[in-house]
Every structure is written in C-alpha cells, then in structure tokens.
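pasting for the record
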Amino acid sequence: MNNYAKQRTLLIIFISVALIYVSRLFYIQIVDTSYVFYAQNNVLQEQTIYPARGLIYDRNGELLVYNDAIYDLSVIPEQIKNLDTLSFCKVLNIDKVEFINTWARLKRQKGYSPWKPIVFQRQITIPTYAAFQEKLFDFQGFFVEVRTDRKYKHNNAAHVMGYIGEVTDRDIEKSNGYYRMGDFIGISGVERTYEKELGGIKGTRYVLVDSKNRTQGRYKNGEFDTAAIAGKNINLSIDQNLQALGEALLMNKTGSVVAIEPKTGEVLALISSPTYDPNLLVGRERGNKYMELLKDPAKPLFDRPISAPYPPGSIFKVIMSLMGQQEQVLNQNTTYGCHRGYLFVGCHAHNSPLALRGAIAVSCNAYFCQVYRSLINNPKYKYVEDAYNEFYKHAYSFGMGHALGIDLFGEGPGVLKKAAYFDKLYGRHHWQALTTISMGIGQGELGITPLQMANATAAVANRGYYMTPHIVKRINNHANPNPEYNTKHWTTIDTSYFPIVIEGMQDVIEHGTAYIAKIPGIEICGKTGTAQNPHGKDHSIFFAFAPKNNPKIAIAVVIENSGFGATWAAPIASLMMEQYLTGKHDTRKALLERMLKGNLNHRNDSTTTKTQ
C-alpha cells in the first residue's frame, strides 16, 4: 500500500471516530435528557417512600392492627462531608464509641454501598428529630425517612397476627434488591404469610439539595418519582370477642383453644397460652423484648395450637367409632362388657355391657380397646400391617399425621405412625393389636395438634368432610382467593355412619361425662378426653360442635397438666360456644368465675408474659 492510500485510510478512521463521538455527545446532551439526571447525581438525593402497611380487622370489621409514624435517620455515606462527629453525637444523644461501632456494623452488612441510602439509627424520638432538622445543614449526607410501625389495638391474638422486624441478609438476597438494610418485613403470623399483600410497594422521590444539605425542591417536578402503593387491608376470620374471652379463660393456664366454622374452615379463635402482648414487639425495644420472651421458661413464643402434638385421649374414640363401622367390625348394636378395664388398660365404673352410643357417652376404655382389636386383627386382611394401614388411612383422612395447610407459618404434622414404624420396632409380622392397644383410646403413638383436633371435630360436624382451616377471610373486601379454602376434603368414612356417633356425642353432654358443658337451649355434641402425660399430670381435653344440626362452631380445648377433660377443657369450650352462638358468656356466673380465677401454673410470671 502506498503512502497516499495509508493516509486516506487513517483519515477515514479519524473522521469515523470523530463522528461517533459527536453523535454520542449530541444524543447525550440533546436527545436523552436522562443523562442530565445522572450527571447531576452529586446534588440529588434519592429518598424511599415507604407505603402504609395494610390494616388488619377481625371478621366483623373490628380494627386490630394499625400503623404509627416513625422516623429513621438514614445516610448516603458517599455524600458525607466535613462531619462534626461531636455535634452529631450530641444531637442523637450517643457517644463516640457507639458512633464508631454503628458505622462498623453497617459496613459489615450484606449489600452495603457508599452510594446507597442506609439506616443509621432507627426510630429516633420526635424531640431528636426536631433537633436534627435544625442542624441538618451541618450533617451533609444524612436525612430523615418517615415510615410506619405497627400498633395493636388489643393486647391479644399475638400468635395469629405475628409481628414485623428488620430484614435479614437472606431476605434482601431473596428479594432481588427490593428490600434494603433497615426495611421491615413480616416475621411471623399473618404478617409473615401475607407480607406481599400487607407490605405494599415502595416508591422513590428525587430531591435537589444544596451544598449545606438543604432541600431545594423536587427534581424535574417529580418526573422520575414513583408513587408508593399502600398495602392491602385484611379481614381475619377471627372473632375478636371470642378470642378475647378465650385468652381470659386461659389466663394462668398452659394450653390451647382452636375454634372453627365447620362449613367454611374459617378459624374463629386460635389461642396459645402462655402468650404475650403483641405491642411488646414494637419500637426500638423490639429486639430486647423478643430476647426476654425467647428466654422465658414458659415459652410464650411457642404457638401451641398449630405446633404442639398431644395424645388425644378419649376424644379419639369418636374417630374409632367411625373407623369400626367403615371396616364392618362394629355397628350401633355391637355390645361389649367392661370389668373396670381391658387387660392392662383400666376404666372407670359405669353401666355394663354397653352398645356403641352408650360407650361413647360414658367413654368406656374397654369397649374401644375391643373395637381397636377387631380393627387390627380383622380376618379379612392377611397381615396385621395391612389392617393397620387401613387404620392409618382413615385417621389421615381426618387431617391427622400431616399439616392441614393453615395460612400460618410453623404448622406441625402431629404424630401418626405408619405400619413400617412398628415393623422396625417389633419386627415384621411380630406385632398385633395388643402390642399397640393403647392407640384405641387415643394414647401410645398418637400426637394430634389442637388445630387437628378442631378440624376433626368439624369433619364430624359436617358428616364427613372438612375445609382447609384458614385465618384470613377477606383481602381488600374480596374473599380470600386461595382455591384450597373452597375445596371439600372428604374423609374415608361413609356419611351413613355419622348419625349414631353424633347421637352418642350429644349424650356426652346431656347425661354423660361432659354434663357440665350443657347450655340450655343449644344442642351440643362433644367428647371429653383425659390424656395420659408421661411428663406429669394428665391433660384435660375436650372437643365439640354446636348446634347439632347446621353447626356453626367446632372447638377443641387442651389444658395441660390439669386432670379430667370435664374439669377444665369442657367448661372453657362451653363458655366460648355460648359466647359465639348467643353473644353472652355470663349466664353461668359460678362456672365463669371458676374458669377465670383458676390458676394452674402456680408461679409468679414475668412482667413481659401474659400467662394464659
């Protein structure tokens, strides 16, 4: 190539590069004005607009949870200039050591960037906020963000509503950057399950600031701003009056209550005792109060109704009655005698022999040991394992042995062992009904959560099906959209076998072991249970539904270490059913007073725990 050609090639390359630069500059300066935004970033401040979190109401529109404004001191580290540390610490009422430690902690957090806003101090007081605003020009890079924290109108239903707290590094990572350090998120209860609906969507505001950190106005009249979208309001299925009564009745007792509307699966009350005031986990002391509750030996944070498996005791005889009929080893006329027990299983004194209805009414252990023996040793099955698998299948269909799917975090499956468990324990074909006979009366290898107990009661009340229990009834005045909550789960028991069992449950109330639970004018069907507890005194258990026809409420009560089912659990359930069905609970004043004043814990409780 001659010199002329080389020069021409170089000239073409030079002109092409020049044209590219000129074109790019023209685009940046004339066509795309957004580059102005980035060029001026050193005088812009990006502020997060936090949405109002959705409100929470009960099923009748009673406000339960609302919002309260709080002020967080945030900072963009890159914009800090000539900070007077002494003056800054004086305004915030902190010392230099705390200032240094805070900076070190913030820099260690995942996602830290000197160009992004970060919360320096959460929830400063209003006087501190006012003092800081007066000296804002001295503290370049710092600004106050207004957001909301939760307030609870009532001091109950803590386990249902849950609480919010600061996001973790994992929360930030899972959110793909939506959450940042210092943001709040639902940690437990409805706040956690429905975080997406309650939390809303954050907005962003860009403001111009001068060299003294004073706001000069909105950038381009808010052209680049995005509005925050408030969270959706939620109506729980909980009845606040029923919940409050239940928590009062469980004061100074350890246990649970779960009440369900049978036709819908809506949870009317869910009570765990001991519990705590939800307002404790609000504000700057949230972390300290949480640790106090966590260390409390009474375990007020433990959600017993959905997590704790208990031996169901005699309430399981209702399920046994239905299984026996389904497997054709029992009918309403089947009679067994009782001689104060069956082999090594004892029983109390009562009329004998009895048919099915009478056996339910007086809760005969011997009768239901015989039913269990006939089930497991059923000759139509070649092996005992096959017969037990049918037992397992029937119990499972009532919601036992697996999580039901309630819209609360932490639900446990309970305990329902498969045949393989006993094969491993005793050897295949080396066990039979007598090996596991205590299961026939709700003991042994059985553990049922109070939620599962109430759900099984609802299945009996519905004559064969249950709806998935759930806490949220409406979202923004629309029915909860989860299709699972409108699906009937049928048990393996034919509907024709329920009437005689329900008659027996009514007899329990009318003249049987739970006569104390009778409410004049209301037909109640129930069953008491006294569950043996290897760790102490027996548990008092009761489940019931009412009215007998077109039932409106199914309820299960467990009072730990308190003896017979009729002593504590049945009266508490009766008072709550009366409240829900009639709006009154004080017609039996002596019974009410005994339940309210009963102290089964016998200890001085901490100031942070509501022992119920």
